[in-house]
Amino acid sequence: MASFLSSFILPIAVAAVALVLLLGLVNMMKGGSPNTSQKLMRLRVLLQFVAIVIAMLAVWAMGR
């Protein structure tokens, strides 16, 4: 299970965080809606939390 989490799920979670971060940067550079920027920032924080939880689960599973 640890291998599955660290090899497949965690990279997907990190890529999702990076994608939302890039979307937010592009929106900001284009002078897009501040409301959209705020939504993307909230989504990024949520995805970061999920990625950290997955990483901690992988570390915990490796120790078992």
From TrEMBL:
Q: Work out whether the entry's keyword set contains Phosphoprotein.
A: no
Respond yes or no to whether keyword Lipoprotein is given for this record.
no
Task: Kindly give the PROSITE patterns that the UniProt entry links to this protein.
Answer: HIG1
Going by the entry's taxonomy, the superkingdom of the source organism is recorded as Bacteria
**Keywords in alphabetical order:** Membrane, Transmembrane, Transmembrane helix
- Transmembrane residue ranges: 6-25, 45-63
* All residue ranges annotated as the HIG1 domain in the record: 1-64
- Protein name per Swiss-Prot or TrEMBL: HIG1 domain-containing protein
Q: Which organism is it from?
A: Bradyrhizobium macuxiense
